[in-house]
Structures are given as C-alpha cells and as structure tokens.
Amino acid sequence: MTLEEAQQAVDTWIKDVGVRYFSELTNLAILTEEVGEVARIIARRYGDQSFKKSDEEVDLGAEMADVLFVLIALANQTGVNLTEAFAKGMEKRTSRDKDRHQNNPKLR
C-alpha cells in the first residue's frame, strides 16, 4: 500500500465507520497517547524497564500501526500529502546529512 492509498483508506474508514474526523487538537492528543504506548513497549523490550504482566503480549507492530493511522488522519485533515512531504524530507536529509553520518566516529 502506498502512502497515497493509506491516506485514502484512512479517509474512507473515518467517513464510513468513524462518522467524522476528530478535531486536530483531539487527534494530536490521541497521537501523543499512541506514541506513548510505543515508547512503553520499547522501554520494556529494549530498555531497562521490566514488563508488567499486561504488557507482555502487546504487539509492537500493532501499536506502531495505531500511530501511523492517527498521523495519517492528521495529514488528511490538514491537507498534507504524505507522499510529497516524505519525498521532500528524504531529499532534505540526504543533502543535509550526506557526509554527517559518514564522518561520525560513534557510528563506526
């Protein structure tokens, strides 16, 4: 699925199943909550925190997908074309950082 297809799928789902978009501020709050859930899993799985019984079976991919869904919803309602925005971001990172990481001794 392309980013464009994902944006269309989220828009269709929201209009058909979700009734309407939440406000941008509500979606920002939901996005923050979803990112927190990803952070909790990563902190326990890859960091120093121990798992709580309720977190042991949580699917990291599903939590990341929740973040992506809300981010796409925000893009849709604010008129952001994620395909174009992502391409521009990759171009910016490539030109800005083309030597930066190659010359970083911490990465060797």
UniProtKB/TrEMBL annotation:
Keyword Mitochondrion in annotation: no
Boundaries of every NTP pyrophosphohydrolase MazG-like domain copy: 23-100
Residue ranges with Basic and acidic residues bias: 89-102
Region: Disordered, residue numbers: 89-108
Alphabetical list of Pfam families matching this protein: MazG (PF03819)
Molecular functions per Gene Ontology: hydrolase activity
Keyword Signal: no
SUPFAM superfamilies linked to this entry: all-alpha NTP pyrophosphatases (SSF101386)
Leader sequence segment: none
Alphabetically ordered keywords of this record: Hydrolase
Coiled coil: none
Classification via InterPro entries: MazG-like_dom, MazG-related_YpjD, YpjD/YvdC
Protein name per the record: Nucleotide pyrophosphohydrolase
